[in-house]
Amino acid sequence: MLDVRIWQEVLGHITAIERYADVALDMCRTAQLIGVRGRTAVIELPLAEAMRLLALGEQDANLAISQLPFPLQQRIRCIRSVKHDVINVDLCGGFLYPRENGEAENAELLKNLVLFQARQKNPFLLIITFNLRDTGKDDYDQFIAETLIALDNIDIKTDELREFYLGKGVRAEQPANLRRLRFCLPTFLQKIAYEKFEVTSLGAWYYKSAFYHTALFFQPRYGTSALGLTWPPIDEFRTLLRAELQLVKADPEGNVSIRELPAPVLE
């Protein structure tokens, strides 16, 4: 709970979701130690299952939550009514890891997160970290290729983007999976949130030669027609691709250097 320690003075309600009982207990103890236990709810569930429960409509949620132990029921019902301004998701592993049925748990988790936040109709900041280690290479490449084909179809030149994001090996000090995440994660989040939120990148960072970390701001949309918004959102997509990615390095003496890693953009 290092982030909570740093920001505790400006935090109101704090929700922590943790699947392992011993870690959840340590979170409760830390919250007590730093004086925020009264405003902290710790949910002992896998993150994907917790987000599914939070995203459900009222009727389905009442049925599903009633199957849980009573103290956990109370905490989840409370959290469903809270407007969360900042969400920090550290999944440790990769983004996709597709399962045998073709679905990816983390992708489903993010869809449920957006559904939950859309019900609150509140702007929020999503901070998210993934390891480059992943098994979704083919899915990433297909998503990138299909997105670029859609742009080709409306006469937008994508040759440089295709060469950079679908090329093999390391490009501009960026391994293939970093480039895939740099393209796919913000674009996927924009896609699933598009009808409810405008998504803006606040920056991204690559560190320890293993981790991709990004911050995205979700602003609710208002006044859309019954038929929804026009797709694709070229201007918003162009802005996402222009977001800076910073390479962060630290030497043994603790000196930190930060340098931008370039990528082609849509003109």
Present the secondary structure layout.
Elements: H1 2-7, E1 14-17, H2 21-33, E2 40-43, H3 47-55, H4 58-65, H5 70-80, E3 86-90, H6 105-120, E4 124-131, H7 137-152, H8 159-166, H9 176-193, E5 197-207, E6 211-220, H10 234-241, E7 245-250, E8 256-261
Parallel strand pairs: 1-2, 3-4, 5-7
Antiparallel strand pairs: 4-6, 5-6, 7-8
Any overview of this molecule?
- This protein has 267 residues and is of the alpha/beta class.
- The protein folds into two domains: 1-82, no CATH class; 88-267, no CATH class.
- The protein is built from ten helices and eight strands.
- Helix 2 (21-33) links the parallel strand 1 and strand 2.
- The longest helix has 18 residues, at 176-193.
Structure in a nutshell:
With 267 residues, the chain is of the alpha/beta class.
Strand numbers in spatial order across the main sheet:
3-4-6-5-7-8
Domains (count): 2
Strand proportion, as a percent range, falls in: 15-25%
Oligomer: single chain
Instruction: Give the integer mean of the pLDDT values.
Output: 90
In total, the number of strands is: 8
**Rg calc:** 20 Å
Low-confidence stretches: none
Distance, first to last CA:
42 Å
The major β-sheet equals: 6 strands, mixed
Q: Tally the helices.
A: 10
Helical percent range? Answer: 40-55%
> What structural class should be given to the helix and strand makeup?
alpha/beta
Apparent shape: globular
Tag the structure with descriptive keywords.
alpha/beta; 267 residues; six-stranded mixed sheet; 2 domains
